[in-house]
Amino acid sequence: MKLIVVKDFEEMSRVSSEIVLGVMHRNERVNIAPTTGTTPVGLYKIIVERIKNKSYFNHVHYYNFDETPFRVSKKEGRIITNLRQMFLTPANIQEKNIHPLDQSNFMTRDQELAEFGGLDLVILGLGEDGHFCCNFPGYAKFSQKTVEIPLQGKLYELYKGVFAEEKEIPEALITMGPSAILASKKLLLMVSGKAKAEICKQALFGEIKEDVPGSILRTHPDITIVVDEDAASLF
Questions:
Q1: How many beta carbons lie within 10 A of that of residue 172, not counting itself?
Q2: Active site (catalytic) residues
Q3: Does 34 score more than 90 pLDDT?
Q4: Per the domain annotation, does 92 fall within a domain?
């Protein structure tokens, strides 16, 4: 594990962008799984400016690693919609390079990725409860590949605050499990803010256990973790 502690969110974004762009500049097909949320906002602003409308990045393909589908509406899920808004559309990524994960293809996603050489990079954030992707404490199993996670109990209560209408809350989430994520050639984990200081310490230096799903990430042979000083304040 390579741990980089930087001053603030802006520096985290800059350092992370160089890592991502280094992978994207390879002269062969590149498969990247980007994340959503607030953590990568600065990263995407930088990358959009660097890659927009540049044909020499047409070999880069994008795969969302989790999805929360709408139960009633016949539209794309929340994750791919957010990725389009945050990054894919501003960067003018061609549709043929975007590979949404959804209820129709999650069972074949691992095989599909293997056929195209696997993921070269997964960009990750860390939740305050230690989750990554949709691998939440109490639901994630380290052995899982790409799976459906029933939306029940505490997880259902969490997503009641995510969907504007309760009727749209799905019966299950879709996510690449820990085993599928660890199969990627490279991981980039970004963590920012004092609110994540305690879980960041647990994930990076505590016991590796399913109660802290993010703790398994540090076992990857090529993971770079970029943490700002606030998130690293308890190290």
A1: 18
A2: 66, 129, 131
A3: yes
A4: yes
